[in-house]
């Protein structure tokens, strides 16, 4: 007797976004872009971006957060302070759950001019 093996893909949590780049930095904002990660066989429903100043002690108490639709691979962040260094980290999420964080990137905003 032959047994048919189940060949349906298993859904997994996505990989973290990669190749996060600051494509436009100004005195009060930044545009970030990234590459779509491996989705875990389920579409990315959203990305979650956290940021904080480099002088902030803790990601949990000193960070801000924004949720970005899964169809986007860039976001514009405004309301930053001039000549300030910020750390950014990003997660991907699908119906199974959230990825780990990708690399933390560090950006210093421009001087106000």
From TrEMBL:
InterPro entries: FN3_dom, FN3_sf, Ig-like_fold. Keywords: Disulfide bond. Coiled coil: none annotated. It comes from the Eukaryota. One of its GO terms (biological process) is cell-cell adhesion. GO terms for cellular component: membrane. Residues 16-112 form the Fibronectin type-III domain. It holds the Pfam family fn3. PROSITE patterns: FN3 (PS50853). This is Down syndrome cell adhesion molecule. The gene is DSCAM_21.
């Amino acid at each position: 007797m032959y047994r048919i093996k189940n060949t349906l893909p298993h859904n997994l949590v996505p990989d973290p976004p990669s190749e996060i780049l600051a494509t436009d930095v100004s005195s009060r904002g930044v545009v970030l872009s990234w590459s779509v990660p491996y989705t875990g066989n389920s579409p990315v429903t959203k990305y979650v971006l956290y940021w904080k100043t480099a002088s902030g002690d803790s990601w949990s108490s000193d960070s801000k957060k924004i949720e970005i639709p899964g169809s986007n691979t860039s976001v514009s962040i405004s309301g930053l302070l001039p000549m300030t260094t910020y750390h950014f980290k990003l997660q991907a999420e699908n119906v199974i759950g959230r990825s780990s964080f990708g690399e933390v990137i560090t950006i210093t905003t421009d001087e106000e001019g």
